[in-house]
Amino acid sequence: MKFFIDTANLDQIREAQDLGILDGVTTNPSLMAKEGISGKEAILNHYKTICEIADGDISAEVLSTTYEEMIKEGDELAAIHPNIVVKIPMIKDGIKALKYFSNKGIKTNCTLIFSAGQALLAAKAGANYVSPFLGRLDDISVDGMNLIEEIRIIFDNYMFETEILAASIRSPMHIINCAKIGADVITSPLDSILNLLNHPLTDKGLAQFVADAKKMS
Ligand code: G3P
């Protein structure tokens, strides 16, 4: 399973990259705005910097919602760096844009996926990734993990190459359950990734080993 970090914060991207387990980065307009990035030049520069820090696929989301505008914007984003993946919203014009980029050999990530039917359409249009939003479904009392399971079954039935990129991750349990189901990728805030490290018996055991090590030296 690939680990992407879901942020536009450069320090967090550096920290995840330094850990040595990072496979890519996802961003969205909300995450970019949170970092105070505004204006076309600043946006393109920020994505360039992310590509210089992190290896792997870097999702850069279009801000427009019509086919013509999305393909113009996506072409500009894709020109920044070979690792850029154009992130397209799950709307009718988005499906057309996914097909356009697929025909051009430009990688895409279809975002705001909340149903298996949406994931199927995006895969049909040639998306490289679909991003089902787990946490936001859980927020409205719908089990987000069921959606990952449904998409896994559908993609396996037809051997779609589209990867399931589980997004809107809120906890280490989301990551573990995604791994059990077979999501291809999780994209997560840094704290949920780092929380996978924690276990009180590890801390207790290490404290004992450190204490005993002192007796030997
Ligand atoms: O990048 C898309 C997704 O991961 C957003 O997550 O926490 O805003 O629902 P969240």
UniProtKB/TrEMBL annotation:
<comment type="pathway">
    <text>Carbohydrate degradation; pentose phosphate pathway; D-glyceraldehyde 3-phosphate and beta-D-fructose 6-phosphate from D-ribose 5-phosphate and D-xylulose 5-phosphate (non-oxidative stage): step 2/3.</text>
</comment>
<keyword id="KW-0570">Pentose shunt</keyword>
<dbReference type="InterPro" id="IPR022999">
    <property type="entry name" value="Transaldolase_3B"/>
</dbReference>
<comment type="similarity">
    <text>Belongs to the transaldolase family. Type 3B subfamily.</text>
</comment>
<feature type="active site" description="Schiff-base intermediate with substrate">
    <location>
        <position position="87"/>
    </location>
</feature>
<protein>
    <recommendedName>
        <fullName>Probable transaldolase</fullName>
        <ecNumber>2.2.1.2</ecNumber>
    </recommendedName>
</protein>
<keyword id="KW-0963">Cytoplasm</keyword>
<dbReference type="GO" id="GO:0016832">
    <property type="term" value="F:aldehyde-lyase activity"/>
</dbReference>
<dbReference type="GO" id="GO:0005975">
    <property type="term" value="P:carbohydrate metabolic process"/>
</dbReference>
<dbReference type="InterPro" id="IPR001585">
    <property type="entry name" value="TAL/FSA"/>
</dbReference>
<keyword id="KW-0704">Schiff base</keyword>
<dbReference type="GO" id="GO:0042182">
    <property type="term" value="P:ketone catabolic process"/>
</dbReference>
<dbReference type="GO" id="GO:0006098">
    <property type="term" value="P:pentose-phosphate shunt"/>
</dbReference>
<dbReference type="GO" id="GO:0005737">
    <property type="term" value="C:cytoplasm"/>
</dbReference>
<dbReference type="GO" id="GO:0004801">
    <property type="term" value="F:transaldolase activity"/>
</dbReference>
<keyword id="KW-0808">Transferase</keyword>
<dbReference type="Pfam" id="PF00923">
    <property type="entry name" value="TAL_FSA"/>
</dbReference>
<comment type="function">
    <text>Transaldolase is important for the balance of metabolites in the pentose-phosphate pathway.</text>
</comment>
<dbReference type="InterPro" id="IPR018225">
    <property type="entry name" value="Transaldolase_AS"/>
</dbReference>
<dbReference type="InterPro" id="IPR033919">
    <property type="entry name" value="TSA/FSA_arc/bac"/>
</dbReference>
<dbReference type="InterPro" id="IPR013785">
    <property type="entry name" value="Aldolase_TIM"/>
</dbReference>
<dbReference type="InterPro" id="IPR004731">
    <property type="entry name" value="Transaldolase_3B/F6P_aldolase"/>
</dbReference>
